[in-house]
Amino acid sequence: YLLPAKNGSKPSHNDYLALALAKQEACTLLTGDTNLRIVANKEQVNVMGTIGLLCAMIENQLLSVEDAFKALDRMKSGKRRLPWPDTEKVLNTLRLLGSAIGKQALRAWV
User: Fold this and answer.
1) Distance from C-alpha of 101 to C-alpha of 7, rounded to nearest angstrom
2) Is 106 helix (H, G, I), strand (E, B) or coil?
3) Cα separation of 10 and 39, whole Å?
4) 34 vs 41: CA distance, rounded Å
5) 42 φ, ψ (degrees, to nearest 5)
6) pLDDT of res. 6
7) What whole-number distance in Å separates Cα of residue 90 and Cα of residue 39?
8) pTM metric for this prediction
9) Alpha-carbon distance 23 to 92, whole Å?
10) Torsion of CA 27, 73, 57, 93, to 10 degrees
11) Per DSSP, which regions of the chain are E strands?
């Protein structure tokens, strides 16, 4: 696969392997890496990051909004890089609006 030749060396070798596998298996690529997202979009591979994953887990009732906030607190304490204001805004929207309306707002955002 010639992804590095086409797109440069910014995503790592392992990132390109994950992208190739996601493309081969026609599945969503989970990443927070901006450079990998750019290449995945060029390759027409669906991408989901931390916010999208948390929201999908909430929507499918695998995680409560409160537990998502706890997870975010741990991520923040661990110095994870996320768009913190946006992340908290999305989860607060889910908390305030309830499941059906919050899910629609969430789908539009993510």
Assistant:
1) 39
2) helix
3) 10
4) 11
5) -60, -35
6) 76
7) 26
8) 0.72
9) 33
10) -110
11) 29-30, 47-48
Apex 97 CA angle, 93 and 98, nearest 5:
110
Helix (H, G, I), strand (E, B) or coil at 19: helix
Which region, left, alpha or beta, applies to residue 33 given φ > 0 means left and ψ of -120 to 50 means alpha? beta
> CB–CB of 32/48 below 8 Å?
no
Place of tokens 């409560």: 64
DSSP state at residue 29? E
Instruction: Give the tokens for residue 28.
Output: 């969503």
Question: Which amino acid, residue 67?
Answer: D
Residue type, 72: L
pLDDT in tens, 89-100: 887 887 776 655
